[in-house]
Specification:
Layout (H helix, E strand, L loop, with lengths): L1 H20 L10 E6 L3 H6 L9 E6 L28 E4 L3 E3 L2 E3 L2 E9 L3 E7 L15 E8 L1 E17 L2 E18 L1
Antiparallel strand pairs: 1-2, 2-3, 3-6, 4-5, 6-7, 7-8, 9-10
C-alpha cells in the first residue's frame, strides 16, 4: 500500500510540474468568430425570444488588412482560399437547405472560395477540421456556386461573415476590404 501511495504521489507531482511548465499559445492575430441564422440565436435562446428555428452557423477566423492589398495580391485570383484565416471556415446546417439547385443535407461542411475580380466560386466540401486549404480535395466538394462580387464604399479592415434574412431563406454576406459577396441559401 505504501508503494502504491508513493507512486501516486510521484505521478501527481509530475503532472503538476508538467502543467506548471506548460506554455500557453499567444493570442491569435486573426481571432475566431461565429455567425448564426437567425442572427444572435444563442442570446435569443437564453432570453426565450426565439421566433424561428436554428438553420445555420458559420465558424471562421477574421484576418485583418493591415495595410495589405488583399484581392489579386494577398489572395491570388483563381486559387483556392480557406475563406478566412487559420483553420478552414466551417458552416453547419441544422436542417436541409438548398444552395443554387443543390440540396444540402443537415451537417457540417468546410467552406472554400476561389476569388476572381468579378465573381467568387463558393465551395462546400465534406472534409472538416482542417487548417488552411493545403489539403483541399475537389473530389469531396458537395456544391460549387458562383456569386457576383459587389464593390462597397465602406472598407472592412477585418474579414466578416454574417447572415441576412431574405423572403426565401437567407444570404451569407461575406465582406473584406471594399468587396462583398452574398451566398443565397434557401430553406
Amino acid at each position: 500500500m505504501k508503494t502504491f501511495s508513493l507512486a501516486l504521489i510521484l505521478m501527481i507531482g509530475c503532472c503538476y510540474g508538467t502543467m506548471a511548465q506548460m506554455k500557453l499559445p499567444p493570442v491569435d492575430k486573426s481571432p475566431m468568430d461565429m455567425s448564426y441564422y437567425p442572427n444572435g440565436y444563442p442570446v435569443l435562446k437564453i432570453q426565450d425570444k426565439i421566433t424561428e428555428p436554428l438553420v445555420a452557423r458559420v465558424i471562421y477566423s477574421r484576418p485583418q488588412m493591415n495595410g495589405r492589398t488583399i484581392f489579386g495580391e494577398l489572395l491570388e485570383y483563381g486559387k483556392v482560399w480557406r475563406l478566412g484565416a487559420n483553420e478552414a471556415t466551417e458552416i453547419e446546417f441544422f436542417q436541409p437547405v438548398k444552395i443554387g439547385n443543390t440540396r444540402i443535407k443537415k451537417g457540417r461542411y468546410t467552406m472554400y472560395c476561389v476569388p476572381f475580380a468579378d465573381k467568387w466560386t463558393i465551395i462546400l466540401n465534406r472534409e472538416t477540421d482542417t487548417w488552411g486549404s493545403f489539403k483541399y480535395d475537389e473530389a469531396k466538394d458537395v456544391v460549387r456556386t458562383d456569386v457576383a462580387v459587389q464593390k462597397q464604399t465602406e472598407i472592412m479592415e477585418a474579414f466578416v461573415m454574417a447572415f441576412d434574412k431574405t423572403p426565401t431563406g437567407a444570404v451569407l454576406v461575406i465582406a473584406w476590404d471594399n468587396l462583398r459577396v452574398a451566398l443565397p441559401i434557401t430553406f
